[in-house]
């Protein structure tokens, strides 16, 4: 287990294209030339709380959601354009994931429900189809947060107490689940979660990585044939000398080499973390504070898409807070993301 080193600084007076890789580790930097990266703001609305980026290989599009903006979005790579939609009756949307076998169907998180919707990816309105399932029906102060699907089409997602109900570190009322589509039920994987957040699998699918933001770390688990998890191991603890950092770890993705990319809410950074050693290999700096999640996409799966938030939690968040960004030049490729199998 390793703690994150002190953050390096970035000259904010330079344009985005001049921001280069900052290598942060407890060892001297390598002698080879450091790779550079470029951060580009994409044409998209400024989200209140942008989240849940999901790259769809077939449609060459990035789907994501604005939790408290109550909207879903599709960034079309070929058009370099973002399409936006709302669903009547659903002011809070926690995630969006395509459904296998129907290119108009998606599941979204609504309160503590998984909801099936119909959307053509272009219209400004999507429509309710049915409720897939519900958890915690009596816990009205909870909502779903981050969710993803593994290579077998299985849904994983967790809950958290609503931010408006108090400090996120005060109570652990969330639970982490997987959904068994054949039996039509949710299976509990972890209890006493503060804020269920980033999740991803290695390319082989036998290792699972998970963030409870209130634990301020990333954990690794073994995955069995049923999709259940065991054998917890802390990959990295973001505390500095036992003290809370100035951010909380939020969403997360993984590349084909097994390195993790951890978004930091309040940290203006996506950390690239070696999943074996826990060392921070790279700090990817963004021009806004509240970095929420990341996903690899593009024709070659080598573009890191990053969502951010403009909602004022503790301090004002000036533009470009809430924007969608693309990070290129990282020299790595991501792993495919999958549609949910509801059959």
Task: Provide an overview of this structure.
The protein starts with a strand and ends in a 15-residue tail after the last strand. It is mainly β. 0% of the residues lie in helices and 46% in strands. The strands form 5 sheets. The chain has an 8-stranded mixed beta sheet, with no helix packed on it. About 8% of the residues have low confidence. It has no helices and 25 strands. Its EC number is 3.1.1.17.
User: For the record, what is the CATH homologous superfamily label?
Assistant: TolB, C-terminal domain
Query: What's the overall average pLDDT, rounded?
Result: 92
Strand order of the biggest β-sheet: 3-4-5-6-10-9-8-7
Main beta sheet, described?
Answer: 8 strands, mixed
Q: How many separate helices?
A: 0
Please report the distance between the alpha carbons of the first and last residues: 39 Å
Helix content: under 10%
**CATH class category label:** Mainly Beta
Rg calc = 19 Å
Strand content range: over 45%
SSE pattern: EEEEEEEEEEEEEEEEEEEEEEEEE
Structural class by helix and strand composition: mainly beta
CATH architecture: 6 Propeller
- Poorly predicted residue ranges: 5-33
As for the CATH topology, it is: Neuraminidase
The figure for the number of domains is 1
What's the number of extended β-strand segments? 25
Query: What is the overall silhouette?
Result: globular
Protein name: Regucalcin
Catalytic activity: D-glucono-1,5-lactone + H2O = D-gluconate + H(+)
Binding site for a divalent metal cation: 51, 197, 250
Family: Belongs to the SMP-30/CGR1 family.
